[in-house]
Amino acid sequence: MSYDALVAGFTRYYRYQHLAQIVAWDQAAMMPPKGNDARGAAMAELAVLMHETLTKLDFTGVAETPSVREMRRQWRTATLLPAALVEKKSLAGTHCEHAWRTQRKANDWKGFLANWRPVVSCAREEAALLADATGLAKYDALLDKFEPGMTSAIIEPMFASLQRWLPALVDEVLAKQAREVVIEPVGPFPVAAQRALGIEIMQLLGFDFEGGRLDVSTHPFCGGVAEDVRITTRYREDDFVQAMMGIVHETGHARYEQRLPRDLVHLPIGQPRSMGMHESQSLSFEMQLGRSEVFLRLVAPLVAKHLGDQPAFAPENLARIYTRVKRGYIRVDADELTYPLHVVLRFEIERALIEGELEPEDVPAMWDEKMRDYLGLDTRGNYADGCLQDIHWTDGAFGYFPSYTLGAMYAAQCFAAIRARHPDLDARIERGDLSEIFAWLDANIWSQASQYETTDLIARATGGPLSADHFEQHLRRRYALS
Questions:
Q1: Which residues fall within 8 angstroms of residue 308, CB to CB, at 6 or more apart?
Q2: What pLDDT digit, counting tens, does each position of 28-44 carry?
Q3: Does residue 219 sit in helix, strand or coil?
Q4: Active site annotation includes 184
Q5: DSSP conformational letter for 239
Q6: pTM, whole model, 2 decimals?
Q7: Angle of CA points 169, 171, 176, to nearest 5°
Q8: Catalytic residue among 70, 97, 126, 250
Q9: Secondary structure (3-state) at 374
């Protein structure tokens, strides 16, 4: 088969992927509950069609290039998985995820477990097939789908490093913040006003509304494709804080998608490098930029414009709100100091689960133990705020969670490089000039797509390999600690 024939096959696959992304967005944001069974069957049928599109390709005689390397990566995974497993996994995940929406609210672990067992079974079967063919550990074979080239052996030392210094840093910051006065915002904050605020901030951050939109879902996400990016958030009328920063976060994902090279986006080489790199873009927007005091000085007038002026919206108070540290149950609500501990917990649990060292019914006990050890919290019997809180496990996305903390590390390293290039960066941000940030990300990350392996991409962009040191330095600088 010629290279041109491979391009035609992957172009067809991308178009199917476009459809899959949009129907998944619709399922989360628009679909009525009674449509789930039919939608699940349709999505499973599409998953099989996409699988067949890849497996019938032939790389014999095709010269190896960066483009072929990325094609082969996707093709190899597809050819190792039988179509029956692809269909079974899709059906099990759709059913489990839909039921989870009500089971979590009801704290119904028993009901969830019955639906989750088939999901775990499919994931283990997939992991075993991929591991046998690649020589990777079972969990690493799934991890590689989200973060190519990453293994537990690489992650463990970095996470162990975090666990050595992060708990003490959390204690130190909590003691410091206990002496600070924070003015709580007074609601209600109408959803329409919050949405208008979010739209204006998205415009400030360069979101292209001709190629994307903002909607509402139970779990905020960024979906769609480069030409049609869909982001969602969720609103509470008594609290605008999470929705506003959630929009900033998802806009970071969206900008990455919208700035991918359009002449290559239908091919693997023109698509995002990895989920860790994708998370680095959302965390560059949310953590590095969005929660900085200089950015909050910039947007404070917008908050007052849309939500009404009040003392809580003073820039320095907003900065205290958005850098408040608290040991909490919920990962998506966690601050940037405690968030990595939530990720380490999930990494350790899902790895044990996939390797067969832990059974699904034993997850709550292990969760409770690690929440006590890492965050000092008791989740016994509280499944809704414990092991039922995340959507990722409902459809078998095991291996995804490390991407969040890897993304935080990538983001810190990228912004260290930007600051080294522009020592006056804070002054630029405060006066509304974000152009140098976007230009650097565009040149070094967005436009590069998957041209390079992740290790090469980050080294070319920042001048060195991934290191947790930049993340630690960022946290100590932000929280005014030595």
A1: none
A2: 899 999 999 999 999 99
A3: coil
A4: no
A5: B
A6: 0.93
A7: 95
A8: 250
A9: helix
